Amino acid sequence: MTDETGLPGVPGRTVDTPHGPGLLQVVDADEPVALLLLSHGAGAGVDTRDLAALAELLPPQGFSVALFTQPWRVAGRKVATPPATLDAGLAAAAAAVAESHAGVPLVLGGRSAGARSACRSARDLGAVGVLALSFPLHPPGKPERSRLPELSDVGVPVLVVQGERDTMGRPEEYPDPMPDGVEMGVLPGADHGLKVGARAEPGQDDVLAMLVETTLEWLVREVVGGSV
């Protein structure tokens, strides 16, 4: 099946969760060395520029990519449900991919709210790494409400990929050094959606290429130990 809430052109299947059906779409590598399970943020689906780029460009490099659309979005709601429901959905999606990809190491991730959910869930779901895109370090304009503790006790290697102009956590707002096991890649000129201006240099395609390259280098180094 396909679903208009997911990534266009990629077949998907329904995943039952405690809070309604979600949608799982998998783009497989020929012989995957790991599988990335990525979920979306609170304001958009899995068709965002960053998730779409990873789903297109990582499988040829040996990494399968699974995109999970949370039940609230499948149901057509405009507002995300509470964090615990997102974690429950992600757990159901992880169980589904474990059935079809037995023995393949699992990397959790996502953008914004999906990144937070991956950090909270990694240890319980047996992930070997977390890819946190546009981690929302704090609500816009409220730096005192830091979510840094969610990055500080993940228990596996974490890559944060942050836009230089992210209003929910600019790179310089993070501690130096970062928490143990956490590293950061910075995308120049990018906002929370990893979008750059129309006349920006580097341009949008270049920034997305940086995202994929940074992610791939980290996966090879930290997740599969240079085996690809």
From TrEMBL:
InterPro entries: AB_hydrolase_fold, KANL3/Tex30_Abhydrolase, NSL3/Tex30. The keyword Cytoplasm does not apply. Keywords: Hydrolase. It comes from the Bacteria. Pfam families: Abhydrolase_11. SUPFAM superfamilies: alpha/beta-Hydrolases (SSF53474). The lineage of its organism: Bacteria, Bacillati, Actinomycetota, Actinomycetes, Propionibacteriales. Residues 34-218 form the KANL3/Tex30 alpha/beta hydrolase-like domain. This is Hydrolase. One of its GO terms (molecular function) is hydrolase activity.
